[in-house]
Amino acid sequence: MAEKGTISIHTENIFPIIKKFLYSDHEIFLRELVSNAVDATQKLKRLSSLGELKEEIGDTTVEISFDKKKKTITIEDRGIGMTEEEIKKYINQIAFSGATEFVEKFKDKEDIQDIIGKFGLGFYSAFMVAKKVELISKSYQEGTTAAKWVCDGSTEFEISDADKKDRGTTVILHIADDSEEFLDEWRIKGILDKYCKFLPVPIKFGKTTESVEDGKDKDGKPKYKSVEKDRYINETEPLWTKSPSDLKDEDYIKFYKELYPMAEDPLFWIHLNVDYPFNLTGILYFPKVKNDFEVQKNKIQLYSRQVFITDEVKDVVPEFLMLLHGVIDSPDIPLNVSRSYLQSDSNVKKINSHITKKVADKLAELFKNDRKSYEEKWDDIGIFVKYGMLSEEKFYEKAKDFALFKNVDDKFFTFGEYEDAVKANQTDKDKNKIYLYTTDAGKQDTYIQSAKNKSYDVLLMDGPLDSHYVNFLEQKLEQTQLKRVDAETIDKIIDKDEKIDSVLTKEQEEKVKTIFEEAINNTSMTVSVESLSPDEMPVTITMSEFMRRMKDMSKMGGGGYAMMGNMPDQFNVSVNGNHPVVDKILKAKKAEKKSQLAKQAFDLAMLSQNMLTGKDLTNFIKRSVSLAAE
To answer: 177 and 148 share a domain?
Structure first.
């Protein structure tokens, strides 16, 4: 007997809002309806395992089909089904979740973990694309008859008896005119591939054509024919649901290639498998990123019981691990009704902390078990480790034991090893250990060689985070300063209070200073005459460590350093009073010649810093030719 009624909405009449704005992306309707079908199937399997099901389960494939002419999309399952009364209860009362009641009913019998629906709203996502929805369902319970529910998107529905012999539910969407884009095979397949690729119940959509061998030709060569087969969308047992002990390296790499077909092989991976105090499974891969800090994020996929939710996982995964790839699956990650945005609660924070710990443990294990392999990977691993140390104190405490320094000779040191290696020779008069570093070994080679002549070691700090990392290390390492190798002349950069006698008188020093100031004629260059080894360069150009570091920080977007970035560059020009070139300048008879030699020595220093360009470079070359011809 046909019956008409009014849908009961708890709280207030929000149906129009639910219909159009429940989800930000309308394609979500298919994920929700397929998830409901999977829920119904998982409930049936649970009932069977509890002895509550009298019949055989049989084929439980969820099938999706569409009819372009009739403008319909159909989702059909052979799950638990519903009686007429259950349809009224679960469909007509919005936000009354059948899954919630099911879990409550059987919670004392067995752990119920495979039910996705929590909010009772997913079904209504159908109305974002449909002008009318038909639901035909038959319960698994003996002696029940099928029922049909129809609604046109208003608060009115019609329910009646239906002719359906098999248990399960069929949902037929009559697609609205403004949503006909979804009546396309490849559009539907794309949505299913995105959201349903790893659902635990087989999902079938349409047909696919395969080429199979069909005997031999007269020359004995194999013949092939095209065969049409059912197209199955998903892999019901993805890698992260399996035990790590059952998997080989090639299994992990194959799965990675399925997720990221264009990527290089990963460096290594971490298989997550936690069941207390929260449920979490997944696989996180360390990709090869080198120093490209701007690589695309959003490469970690978040699932809830094998249903794809989002690739925006910033609340679940620590910020410094957002460059990782892989999947995370947890029923304990709270989601809002749209399942699109994570809510920051205690479970999310616990999972975030656990992932940090697991990554730190894995890195420590790799370092301890195979240091050589770890060092070979450091150029890729380093960016994760440094980012983690900068952003999380707990990670720093673990990472300081496996973080590495790399010097310009490609040798690696732990923090403790490096301190032991350099403290004897690189401690200044104030008992500070001075770590020298370069941000560009090629451009700063002159300064590196000067340091090496003193038996000083020089670290390579050329990564995108190193301007921040250098400041950070000075705060963490006791009585330690880091200075770029071109921040001062070599005798000043590690000041041991050792004086080199000057061959010049005070009067000569003032004369040399004046000659260079007039030859350079640049107010951003501050000239001084110093007593250095005759083996050092005649002129050295430096920017103070403080000034240059502030400018580097401003380039990295440090808000507090923006003002420094706008200030004009200021350089120190150190003239080596003990160098033979200076003696030659003083002995030159003509002022023009003195200026020419001074400018040549200055330009040579500019060239060593890669600062000589344009007209100045051209003039330097011409002057070099002229001086060589003399």
So the answer is: yes
How do residues 321-355 score in pLDDT, each as one tens digit? 888 899 999 887 755 444 444 555 667 778 888 88
Give the residue among 147, 172, 164, 154 at the shortest CA–CA distance from 88: 147
Q: What is the pLDDT of residues 578-625, one digit of tens each?
A: 999 999 999 988 889 999 999 999 998 888 878 888 998 998 898 888
Task: Determine the Cα angle at 613 with ends 611 and 616, to 5°.
Answer: 105
Q: Is residue 460 a contact partner of residue 406, using CB atoms and an 8 Å limit?
A: yes
Does residue 477 sit in the same domain as residue 534?
no
Kindly give, in sequence order, each residue whose CB lies less than 8 Å from that of residue 521, ignoring residues fewer than 6 positions away.
none
Please calculate the CA angle 189-190-195 and round it to the nearest 5 degrees.
100
Q: Which of 360, 392, 421 is the last residue of a domain?
A: 360
Q: Which domain holds residue 452?
A: 403-493
The 3-state secondary structure of 418-483 reads: HHHHHCCCCECCCCCEEEEEECCCCCCHHHHHHHHHCCCCEEECCCCCHHHHHHHHHHHCCCEEEE
576 φ, ψ to 5°?
Answer: -80, 100
Supply the CATH number for residue 85's domain. 3.30.565.10
CA atoms lying within 13 Å on the CB side of residue 394: 12
Q: Residues with Cβ < 8 Å from 523, sequence gap 6 or more?
A: none
Domain identity same for 526 and 441: no
pLDDT band at 294 (very low <50, low <70, confident <90, very high): low
Instruction: Please count the structural domains in the chain.
Output: 4
What's 607's domain CATH number?
1.20.120.790
The answer to whether the beta carbons of residues 203 and 238 sit under 8 Å apart is no
* pLDDT of 101 strictly over 70: no
Binding residues: 32, 36, 77, 82, 97-98, 169, 339
User: How far is it, in rounded angstroms, from Cα 230 to Cα 546?
Assistant: 68
Asked if omega into 222 is within 30° of 0 (cis), the reply is no
Q: Given a cut of 50, is residue 392 above it in pLDDT?
A: yes
Q: Say yes or no to pLDDT of 295 above 60.
A: no
- Closest C-alpha among 618, 579, 630, 629 to residue 601: 579
Distance, in Å, from the CA atom of 79 to the CA atom of 98, rounded to the nearest integer, reads: 13
Q: How far is CA 573 from CA 408, 443, 446, 541, in A?
A: 26, 18, 15, 5
Count the Cβ atoms, other than its own, within 10 Å of residue 67.
12
Query: Mean pLDDT, to the nearest integer, of 452-459?
Result: 94
Are residues 410 and 305 part of one domain?
A: no
Highest mean pLDDT among 12-26, 101-115, 368-382, 480-494: 368-382
Q: Which of 69-73, 112-116, 187-191, 299-303 has the lowest mean pLDDT?
A: 112-116
Residue from 527, 545, 562, 540 nearest 491 by CA: 540
Specify the CATH number for the domain of residue 432: 3.40.50.11260
Residue 18 included in any domain: yes
Q: Are 512 and 582 within 8 A, CB to CB?
A: yes
Confidence of residue 113 (pLDDT cuts 50, 70, 90): very low
- Cα–Cα distance measured from residue 89 to residue 97, given in angstroms and rounded to the nearest whole number: 9
Same domain, 69 and 10: yes
Instruction: Specify binding-site residues for ATP.
Output: 32, 36, 77, 82, 97-98, 169, 339
Q: What is the mean pLDDT of the chain?
A: 84
Same-domain check for residues 486 and 518: no
Amino acid present at 226: S
pLDDT (tens digit, 9 = 90+) per residue, 521-540?
988 888 999 888 888 889 88
